[in-house]
Amino acid sequence: MRWLGSSILAGAILWSAVFAAPPPTPLQPAADTGAKTWVGRAAEIEAYLRTAPIVRTEETDRGVTRPVRAFLAPGGAIESMVWKELPPGRPNGYYESYKSEIAAYEIDKLLELNMVPPKVERKVDGKTGVAVMWVTGARTFSELRGVPKPPPAMAPKFNRELTRAKMFHNLIGDIDPNLGNWLIDPEWRVTLIDQSRSLTTTTRLVHEMQQIDGPLWERMRALTADGLSRDLSQWLGPPEIRAILARRDRMQAKIDRLRRQQ
Hints:
This protein is an alpha+beta fold. 31% of the residues lie in helices and 14% in strands. The chain contains six helices and eight strands, in the order H-E-E-E-H-E-E-E-H-E-E-H-H-H. Strands 1-2-3-5-4 form a five-stranded antiparallel β-sheet, with helices on both faces. Strands 6-7-8 form a three-stranded antiparallel β-sheet, with helices on one face. Strand 4 and strand 5 form a beta hairpin. Helix 3 crosses helix 6 and helix 5 crosses helix 6. The longest helix has 24 residues.
């Protein structure tokens, strides 16, 4: 398992200094979504994930959990989904849960990040797990043998994507940021998959931060205990919700140090 640590990204071109004004212009998802076909259609796809008939399944080799790919009835919102049972526990030495997957997606929506594909709770053959939209038109960093190098014209966009993704991983405490969980499409947009080991009570930050994305950080700062409890209590308990804010506090401390260095 290879990890997407700060050393791997050390050669990337830095972009969007944290504290410069004005803040970077947000990416515009409307006409140019690449593989992120769920943008603007999330509610429709969530509903289809919950109810679409499954016509066949096949095993996959993605990750240690070996999820099932389920093909859905033709003509619907999406062609196929990943389904994982993953009851909360430590089957491989790490705490994992399908509920963490769904909570990560809900946080992605709160942050308007659009990096995590739609996920819902669903029963398959009487077992409860998570159904995840299968992302097409993107390849993992692992398939590309490392973090890809963009053409110069795409470097600013790609490096902002990396910055935002690392901020998100730090906030949710994703301890499994390996190369197989990062996808890139032809538009140099990053998609993040497999957050089953995230959102525990750890307060450790998994990535060093040399820069941040200003608008995303403001949305992270706006998160509150009451709001997170309202939106995530079906998936996370109070200790896990408190840990989100504790990790954000640690991010704030690092950002304050960056400010002093600036």
